[in-house]
Design a protein that fits this description.
It comes from Mesorhizobium qingshengii. This protein is α+β, with helices and mostly antiparallel strands. The chain is built from 2 helices and 10 strands. It folds into 2 domains: about 50 residues, no CATH class; about 80 residues, RNA polymerase II/Efflux pump adaptor protein, barrel-sandwich hybrid domain (OB fold (Dihydrolipoamide Acetyltransferase, E2P), Beta Barrel).
């Protein structure tokens, strides 16, 4: 794989809001991890025409089952209308027995969940709107 192909793959991952990708073939393996804030900024810049408002949202950075309530406590991780800071946990992504925090991508007010509790989500799935 050439550096140009890797750069194209990284750009595609950023535009698709993919947080991590790993691939291997005979004699070669590659793992790319995208920085969430960088990927979100690139996507917003690429998709928004000048003068148009960008839809801010929290997206899934992996594949799993989205949980509004923390599986171990049964309490909501975050509530709609709550003011959140960038990097604050607003949900949980469950992959088998493993739990991964879903983090706010920017400061804002958390909107209603865009997917139901227990829904299977993929890379880049919008989970919450941010105002």
């Amino acid at each position: 794989m050439t550096i140009e192909e890797i750069e194209r793959l990284a750009a595609w991952c950023a535009s698709a809001c993919i947080g991590e990708i790993e691939m291997s073939e005979a004699g070669f393996s590659l793992r790319l991890r995208m920085q969430p804030a960088v990927a979100e900024t690139r996507v917003a810049a690429a998709r928004a025409p000048v003068g148009e408002t960008v839809f801010k949202c929290v997206r899934a950075l992996g594949v799993g089952i989205f949980r509004l309530d923390h599986p171990t406590t049964g309490h909501p991780v975050a509530e709609p209308g709550q003011t959140v800071r960038k990097g604050e946990t607003v949900g949980v992504l469950q992959v088998g027995p493993c739990l991964k925090a879903v983090l706010a991508s920017a400061d804002g007010v958390l909107g209603a969940a865009l997917v139901e509790d227990g829904a299977v989500v993929g890379y880049g799935t919008p989970l919450y709107a941010l105002a």
